[in-house]
Amino acid sequence: MHRMHSALVAAFVVVGMHVGGVQSAHAASDISDLLGRWNGFARSMMNADNPIGEVTFDISLTKNRRFEGNASFTGNPETFHVDGTLSADNIFNIQGNSPGGQHVIAHGRLRALGDGSVRIVAAMFKLFDPQGNLLDEGISLLLQSFGGLDWGDLKVPAVQGNYLGDWTSDVFKNPDTGPGGPLMGRADFMVGPEDQTGSQFCAHGTFFDVFLPFIERRTDLMFEFEGTVGLPAVQRGGSMAAPFAGIGANSRGIIAILIGLLLPAVQDLPITLQGRYALAGSFFDVFTDVFRGTNRSFDAGTFSLPAVQ
């Protein structure tokens, strides 16, 4: 059976890439859509020694256009109980406190990607000590796990394993393949046996030989990913596949966003991750795209990563 990229999903929208239709950031989300687990990364503007860490946000209660939950930051032992509001155009404001007296505030926006089922938030945040002194400030980017409050018990396909395949750029051309040939490279994606809980997972991934226009050369980009996989559904063409999304950050602050499908094994073809990617040069670029609906990604294209047998 031959797998075609066009058989994946009718349209994808990755941050700043408007390919087909998708829910606009100006179309109000149902407040209950916020419920569940959000995972991602934060980049500090103050901590030069360890500028990038992980963020987890569990939203457990919504009412009218308000929500409540708990948030935690890598490197901070405190857990924050937070509450916030979501406006009709998906702008949110958050404030919260920890048992030790620390205080957090955040301002950002929610945007739906892909077919509208993938949700990302981007926010500017500030952390204060009990005396009101600024401890940290920066940008956070979080991806929602499929399943809402049931994310931890959702009976989704196992995504654990090693994947190795190719990426193909829609932006850059390969000067060695003749006129019009796309730039291509290899990529891998590794999810450990203990790295999936329900619909949420973490992974390591590498895009090899990516062209970086701001330094005008090709290099390998290694990412830590937070991701989610959903329940299988019938796709266009009649095949079954599970929705898949991930957000990755590397030590330089470059961001990767993946949206696609986890395709089941068929005859002699292994399980495959397949979809679209976008690469952005900084946390701020992604924040701007999520908040304003612009396109600051420096590369975008397709990927196909079969599982390694």
Model description:
A hairpin with a 4-residue loop joins strand 6 and strand 7. Helices cover 3% and strands 54% of the residues. The chain is mostly beta strands and 309 residues long. The strands form two sheets. It has an eight-stranded antiparallel barrel with strand order 1-2-3-4-5-6-7-8. The chain is built from one helix and 18 strands. The N terminus is likely disordered.
List the helices and strands and how they pair.
Elements: E1 36-44, E2 52-63, E3 66-73, E4 79-86, E5 91-97, E6 103-113, E7 118-128, E8 134-144, E9 161-173, E10 182-191, E11 196-197, E12 200-212, E13 217-229, E14 233-234, E15 240-249, E16 255-263, E17 272-280, H1 283-292, E18 297-306
Antiparallel strand pairs: 1-2, 1-8, 2-3, 3-4, 4-5, 5-6, 6-7, 7-8, 9-10, 9-18, 10-12, 11-12, 12-13, 13-15, 14-15, 15-16, 16-17, 17-18
